[in-house]
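Reviewers of the previous submission asked for a worked example of the structure-prediction workflow described in the proposal, so we include one complete record here. The input consisted solely of the amino acid sequence. No template or homolog information was supplied to the procedure at any stage.
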Amino acid sequence: MSTIADRLIEDAGLRAGVSRLTPEKIEKVFKELIAGECGARLKTYLETCVHCGMCAKACHYYMSHKDPSYMPAAKVTQTMAKLMAAGGKVDPKLIYECAQVSYTECNLCRRCIHYCPLGIDTGYIMSVVRRLCHKLGCTPQYIQDTAHSHSATMNQMWVKDDEWPDTLQWQEEEARDEFPGLRIPLDLEGADFMYSVIAPEPKFRTQLIYQAAAIFNAAGLNWTMPATPGWDNSNMAMFTGDAEIMSRVERAHYETAQRLRVKRIVMGECGHAFRAVYDVANRWLGWKWTPVPMVHSIEFFWELIQQGRIKITHKYADPVTIHDPCNVIRGRGLMDKLREVTHFLCEEVVEMHPNREHNYCCCAGGGVINCGPPFKNVRVAGNSIKAEQLKATGVHTLVAPCHNCHGGLEDIISKYELGMHTKFLGDLIYELMEKPEAE
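From that input alone, the workflow returned the following structure tokens.
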């Protein structure tokens, strides 16, 4: 069995952070964290794990490497268990190892909970390790840059205030060539819903905004998008362990919706953003649920189909398979609605096995893909089991309603030469829906 020390990868952010640490500082910060932010949950998990190994087959890293050091229980043993046993009095090099394990060798996908006979949430434990690393100033360089972007611009791609409305206006003008009279309403008060997206859409996937506007226009919906910061629903600070920036970003998102007095928020096809808005930042801010009702696009498209508002001219002819994103399937239970939407749109759906809440993670979520090039090869090699799962379907079209999943799956498809392509639900709806005849 290897150890994390055997496969340590150089990262400028981690190396610089660790260079500033002393055992005394680590001990002080660790004790403050455990006393101030952690309770019986963490202690119970650590004390009840019997190291039975049942979690091994739950983890795509273990299933890809077949190395026991990648087991969820082993990840805890190499990180939080050592910290607790030493009372935080450890050498700085252990913090580097903890950071690599928690940020890049665990996607926080929480699949392991389903296999643990005691229900231990290793993802939660790894989140606490990340929180410690953040408070010690030891985070991977690339994802830390994203957190800085959230702090400075309230979005993850350094999109400037004027660039956002300019992009929406540009997409509206493009769309009106195909859909005369289409509007992307900005700051419309009292609309039925505010549509929010992640920052990569205006940065380099603008066609998704175009497509969403086309779908909403064809469905005759009363909607709006904000013109001010608060439009980005993504939140990489949640994954760096920076709860303070995470909560600032989500407060801006909630307050933007409240300012516009919309009935609810409809979120684009992103899993981690949904997790941040629906289940993490709201609790950090003191709300049991969100202050404004919100739904993921899967559920929203399902509603439109049930209401007869989405009309298609034909079904997608080629067989497709469905990838179940962790944060909206294990995290929200939208597996059946995802299938109903996909079956409505497609002639033939070939299921992956396992599927639904037992589906393997894309290996891009949990902020892992945002840790950047130093860890890309590790991430792709760590999910060869997903490549096997995809290949076994024998299809060439993969439906994945999540941005991070697209990034991770496309890397796997390329590496293992699977000859597949990925589609969002919005891609399919736009392609298949009734459109006005060209004049």
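The longest strand covers residues 193-196. We consider this example representative of the routine output the project will generate in years two and three.
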